[in-house]
Design a protein that fits this description.
409 residues; five-stranded parallel beta sheet; globular
Length: 409
């Protein structure tokens, strides 16, 4: 029988089966030397050898030692995807790496940055900020007044500079925490702080961008009156229905821009809703009807991260496009989708959307702290005023929270 016909009749799953493959190659070499009389012989040792080589009895290892000799991939072996490196990278102890988080608007308070003045670099940051902004930011942080500090155009630069000044404190107290930092993220405004920390945006340019962002959002607040509420709810609550009805109510009431939407995903069963005044009034008065546990109005001047902020997008986009943006030196995660920024162009495309898109903080934390069962978590430092981000982390990932610390201002 022709050797090619014999091979054609064999099963197709011979790839990687070492013993059978070797037998076939040896058989093919021998067959070239056979005489025509030998090929016709029914009792030829060659025919017997070929018949036995096709039985695949060797696929059934008799001992544990034969496992690797017979099967290309033993049961349970993880196969790398196409394109992945076959070089095994050394694993690092996650406890030796750090993640740094930066807070957003609402964390400010009169007196913040007082404990940072003993660090020379922190004082230098405030002096440079005073020059760039053309007003005394440090005095505003230390002395207020509160109603001025709470204004969007003032609170955003104040929080950003205070957060970066807290980094100087962290450098002094735990220098390895900066050297071993592998990722960073910030809540809303804090995302720009994170990009500055990661080297994607220079401090001066970052502060100017925050100033433009804050002023543009302040103007949007004055043009379309709105606000925000924190909503705590149950698994069987009808939050989506409540949001839809609230928007319809605002439309009937004649709001200039009727709006009601989720602005912040904080943690399970807790979200922040942004909307026009009539819509928020409806939610507060009808919470029981939709089984909402708690609806609490926030002390903010506008409906941030909603369509009521649309007028602020274009001024910020133009300023960002004129800015020099670099690729981050460490991973920075976006509020828009919770995913890591790819490069400078991705930052320019994604960052303006954040003004009107909801902050997906809960989703972001799941991505950043995803670990296999039994693995350790990196240390986390919340740098800036307040302790809200650490409190949220506890609700989303209690194990990661145990190694999270606040660097207060």
């Amino acid at each position: 029988m022709n050797i090619y016909k014999i091979i054609a009749k064999l099963p197709r799953n011979l790839t990687g089966i070492k013993d059978s493959k070797c037998v076939l190659f040896r058989t093919f070499s021998l067959s070239q030397k056979l005489t025509s009389d030998e090929k016709k012989s029914e009792e030829s040792p060659l025919k017997k050898l070929l018949d036995e080589s096709a039985t695949f009895e060797d696929l059934r290892p008799q001992t544990q030692e034969q496992q690797w000799a017979t099967l290309p991939y033993p049961q349970g072996t993880k196969i790398r995807k196409q394109g992945e490196s076959f070089i095994e990278k050394p694993k690092h102890d996650p406890r030796e790496s750090t993640i740094i988080l930066f807070p957003g608007q609402g964390s400010q308070f009169v007196g913040m940055a007082k404990d940072l003045l003993k660090y020379p670099m922190a004082r230098d940051l405030f002096e440079l900020a005073n020059y760039i902004l053309n007003y005394d930011l440090l005095k505003l942080c230390l002395e207020g007044p509160k109603d001025k500090l709470d204004q969007t155009k003032y609170s955003q630069p104040a929080i950003m500079v205070s957060s970066l000044a807290a980094i100087e404190r962290l450098k002094e107290e735990r220098p390895k925490a900066i050297e071993s930092c592998v990722a960073t993220a910030g809540f809303s405004l804090g995302e720009i702080t994170a990009l500055v920390f990661a080297g994607a945006i220079g401090f001066e340019r970052g502060l100017k961008l925050v100033q433009i962002r804050g002023e543009a959002m302040q103007l949007a607040c004055e043009a379309y009156k709105g606000g925000m509420v924190t909503v705590m709810y149950n698994p069987d609550s009808k939050l989506n229905q409540a949001i839809r009805k609230a928007k319809e109510w605002a439309t009937d009431k004649g709001d200039l821009m009727p709006e009601c939407q989720i602005a912040n995903y904080l943690y399970p069963h807790c979200k922040v809703i942004a909307g026009s005044e009539s819509a928020l009034d409806y939610l507060e008065k009808n919470a029981k009807e939709y089984n909402l546990k708690k609806v609490k109005r926030l002390a903010v001047s506008g409906a941030f991260h909603s369509n009521l902020m649309l007028p602020a997008v274009e001024p910020f986009r133009k300023a960002l496009n004129k800015s020099e943006i670099n690729n981050p030196v460490i991973s920075v995660y976006s509020n828009v989708d919770g995913k890591r920024y790819k490069d400078a162009q991705h930052i320019k495309k994604q960052l303006p959307k954040q003004i009107v898109k909801p902050v997906k903080w809960e989703q972001l934390l799941h991505v950043v702290y995803e670990r296999s069962q039994g693995e350790y978590f990196p240390r986390t430092f919340e740098c800036g005023p307040g302790t809200s981000l650490r409190a949220i982390l506890k609700q989303v990932n209690a194990k990661a929270w145990t190694t999270c610390f606040n660097i207060l201002v």
